[in-house]
Structure formats: C-alpha cells, structure tokens
Amino acid sequence: MSRPYVIDQMISAKSIAARIESLARDIHAAFDDTDKLVVVGLLRGSFVFIADLVRELDLPVEVDFIEASSYGDGMESSREVRILKDLRGTIEGRDVLIVEDIVDTGHTLSHVTDYLRSRHPARLKTIALLDKPARREVDFRADWTGFEIPDAFVVGYGIDFAQRNRNLPYIGQVRFTDDA
Ligand code: IMP
Q1: For residue 78, is it within any domain?
Q2: What is the reported pLDDT for 80?
Q3: Residue 76 has pLDDT above 80, yes or no
Q4: For 24, which of 7, 56, 61, 123 is 20 to 30 Å away at the CA?
C-alpha cells in the first residue's frame, strides 16, 4: 500500500553541521553561567540532532529524553498531545534546553514546553532543527531554529517517513513518483 517515492536533498550534511556550530555558540552564550544544563531530546526524531548538538556544547550537560505523541481525531484540526515517556531526572531549579526535530503545527513543542515549565526549571529554552511556519496552528516559536523550510514532507538526519529514512545524513524532501 506504500506509494513509491524518491528523496531530493534539501539541506546538506555540511550545512547542518555548520548551522549547529553557530547554534551551539548562541546556546553557550545564553547558558554560560550554568552549573548544569539538562538537554531534553524529544524522541524519536531529535536523536541525531541532539547527539551532534551536545558535542558542540562546552558546558556541563545532562541528557534526558521525553516522548510525546500527537494525533488528530480525524474530524477536526484540534490536536491532542500525550506524554508516552517522561524524563528520568528532575528539572526543578535546573536549566533546561528542549531539543525538537521539526516544529510543524506547533502543538507538540508547545505542549511539552508547558508540561516541563510546570516543574519549575530555573531557565527553559527550546531549539528546533527545522521550522515550517506555514503549517503553524498554535502561536509558538522555538527560541532557536536551525532552518526555516517550506511546507514539504522531509526525512533524514533522524526524521522519518513511516519509521524509514532516519539514517540519511542530510535532510531530504519526499517526492512521490506516482504523481501525475
Ligand atoms: P507538530 O506538533 O505539528 O509541530 O509536529 C511535530 C512533529 O511532527 C515532529 O516532531 C515530527 O515528528 C512530525 N513531523 C512534522 N513534519 C514532519 C515531516 O516533514 N517529516 C517527518 N515528520 C514530521
């Protein structure tokens, strides 16, 4: 039942690496006095991004993960986000950076940010590798964004299409080949 598709490169591995170096400098500047930064990756799409990002951070860092699931009810555009896997560690009074792969409608990162903010971290910031502003349904902007992209379905660098293509080293756009 899966449709045939090809993947057109949109953002090269080299461009991603360069952008991450620059983002890490901004994060460093924001948290340079931290005693420990808890870097929270949203599973699963952020796993490659968080791995590269933390290796560019010359800060005391703890890594934790949270998994959220968002889905529509199929009848209306309202979205419900559930926490499937919570943090292992405590973040009260700590500096926190939430790392997401893509901000699309904005529901997921907005919900997870509110959820973690309710635990009273000292400072809480958000970073997303990709942002699709044209798709936004809630008023949310990450503190840092790697790249703004158009309304396209992308894969690679941790991001999947039906659990495939996460291992591509670059960001590519899915193009269906059975289109007229
Ligand atoms: P949001 O709640 O609509 O912002 O959705 C964010 C999540 O949707 C991301 O973490 C991705 O898992 C998924 N997502 C959004 N756009 C894409 C895409 O182009 N390719 C793969 N997953 C996507």
Answers
A1: yes
A2: 87
A3: no
A4: 7
* Overall domain count for the chain: 1
Burial (0-12, 13-18, 19+ Cβ within 10 Å), 7: middle
CB 17 within 8 A of CB 55: no
Q: From the candidates 95, 104, 114, 151, which is the catalytic residue?
A: 104
172 lines ligand 1 (CB under 6 A): no
* Nearest alpha carbon, ligand 1 atom 9: 102
**In the beta sheet, which residues pair with residue 15?**
none
Report d(CA 155, CA 9) in Å as an integer.
9
Helices (H), 31-106: 47-55
Q: Is residue 58 part of a domain?
A: yes
Nearest CA to ligand 1 atom 16: 104
pTM: 0.95
**What does the pLDDT look like over 8-36, one tens digit per residue?**
999 999 999 999 999 999 999 999 999 99
Asked if the structure places residue 98 within a domain, the reply is yes
Range of the domain at 101: 12-151
CATH number, domain containing residue 126: 3.40.50.2020
Give residue-wise pLDDT tens across range 95-143.
999 999 999 999 999 999 999 999 999 999 999 999 999 999 999 999 9
